[in-house]
Amino acid sequence: MTMVNGSIRSKVPGNLRRLNYAAPSVSSLLQETMAPRKPSSFAKNRPPASIPTATTSAADGIDLTDTKRLFESISTGKLLKSTAAIHASSFGPMVDLGTAVMNSRLMENPLARKIILDATEHTFYSHFCAGKDLDAAAATLSRLWDAGLSAMMDYGLEHADDNHSCDLNLHEFLRTIEWTKLHQPGQVSFVVVKITAICPVSLLKRVSDLLRWENKDKSLNLPWKFESLPIFSDSSPLYHTPKKPESLTPEEEKDLGLAFERLTKICDHALQINTPLLIDAEDTSIQPAIDYFSYSAAVKYSAAACTGEKEDPLIFNTIQAYLKDAKDRLAAAKKAADRMRVPVGFKLVRGAYMSSENRLAASLGAETPIHDTIQKTHDCYNECALFLLDEISGGGGSVVLATHNIESSKLAASKAVSLGIKKDSPCLQFAQLYGMSEALSFGLKNAGFRVSKYLPFGPVDQIMPYLMRRAEENRGMLSTSATDKMLMRKELMRRLRSPASWF
Ligand SMILES: Cc1cc2nc3c(=O)[nH]c(=O)nc-3n(C[C@H](O)[C@H](O)[C@H](O)COP(=O)(O)OP(=O)(O)OC[C@H]3O[C@@H](n4cnc5c(N)ncnc54)[C@H](O)[C@@H]3O)c2cc1C
């Protein structure tokens, strides 16, 4: 097994630079990006009308037909349990019932709450999560590593409301980073960071509003703002901020400073032990502030990149392809990063907040920021992936293709091979959530690509919002979990027919 992300070379972080440089405008960056300057522009990389079929073997070497090989590291007991968990989590009425119970007053009754959390722990939690703490997660990490997979460690923290909870969360992030030292290089490919856990969400909303307004009115002065990369494009939705927001109060500015200090501590620790950080994306009401945090940190930690050598990024920011402005924003950030010689990686996902985004836009009388059809989301994902692969083949860029979608994975894998990107290149990684798409993870790994599982851990009640999102995602027969179920059933049938292969 090749090592994953072994070397973010030591960098001397400079102070955050105040934003007083003449940043190129987003539209000029886009014009440049979209112009036919080299074969990496999106326009030249539209996905083919017909994408390779899911299970055929091609130049990418991904074979999803041989279930014996795909599931060889999974015991029959675990396979049975996983099949049951995925069936249950994709059964619509069950998801509705679970959601209703979780949001009901039953959860306020201590006994009922304990019963519900215990039941969850022994079913969905044990399928989708690595354990309640780092010790428990270590066992899962070892199992994954033995099977040839790395892990992205995600301490299950959701939104923080005040500085005290942010400080507690910071402590957990630092502990997780320290803990990766106990393991072989590459076993932990990334530590996942949620900006919402280290900066109060109300402040992220305020900062997002101000950034949106500044995008509309360039004369707006934001004295607290550090140098960053573009976070909007001409197509970005601005409906969340209908009128000019008040400036940050001195107390809010102080809190923002504290949040940056927290992120700086996390970056310093991660840098010391050569573990890159993966910053999760959330909903559009706060995403501008999250992008701003990520890109400012990337700029701050780019000092060594100015020597002219290629650097591995410390920060990977997330782009959600279900957003109509995803491609434009990605291109703008990437182009500015190249121009400013800021190493930054991208995690590409489709996006997990579709219902709430649609609801919020409708409630504000605005057009949804999400693509009108799932096919448009698929196209956007594929185009963003191909854009980044082109960039990588041209010598700059790093991407984590975080998806369960077999077509997108195969398309990207074939493209990488055809561009001459080595399958084990540290610049290209695939990732799936723990407990989902085992066949795809192993298919990619068997073909020689680097693959990680996104591994949440933490107390059961803290992980509930994450589990609810997974249930929502798996709902219905057309979800990606349908292929998982089909392949697992096939393997279970094969083992039933030849009991000698049980283990
Ligand atoms: C490693 C990893 C990290 C992740 N991190 C994040 C994160 O930081 N932030 C985040 O938001 N999500 C994150 N996710 C979750 C991710 O967004 C979902 O797993 C993903 O949306 C499921 O899509 P898929 O690529 O697996 O493909 P599919 O299952 O093929 O696509 C389903 C997705 O398509 C989109 N979609 C569905 N219907 C429509 C429609 N009618 N119109 C438009 N679009 C539609 C939705 O995004 C839906 O989730 C992460 C996932 C992984 C694997």
Overview of this protein structure:
The protein has 503 residues and is α/β, with parallel strands linked by helices. The chain is 48% helix and 9% strand. It has a single domain (26-501), classed as TIM Barrel (Alpha-Beta Barrel). Mean pLDDT is 84; it is low at 1-7, 9-57 and 305-309. An 8-stranded parallel β-barrel has the order 1-2-3-4-5-6-7-8, surrounded by 6 helices. The protein is built from 17 helices and 8 strands. Helix 11 (326-340) links the parallel strand 4 and strand 5 (345-349). The site of flavin-adenine dinucleotide has 27 residues, from strand 4, helix 13 and strand 7.
Which key features would you list for this structure?
503 residues, alpha/beta, eight-stranded parallel beta barrel, 17 helices, 9% strand, disordered N terminus, binds flavin-adenine dinucleotide, EC 1.5.5.2
Write the layout of secondary structure elements.
Blueprint: H1 26-34, H2 67-70, H3 76-89, H4 92-102, H5 110-128, H6 134-146, E1 150-155, H7 163-180, E2 188-193, H8 201-216, H9 250-272, E3 277-279, H10 287-300, E4 315-320, H11 326-340, E5 345-349, H12 354-363, H13 374-393, E6 399-402, H14 406-418, E7 428-433, H15 438-447, E8 450-457, H16 460-474, H17 481-497
Parallel strand pairs: 1-2, 1-8, 2-3, 3-4, 4-5, 5-6, 6-7, 7-8
Bound molecules: flavin-adenine dinucleotide.
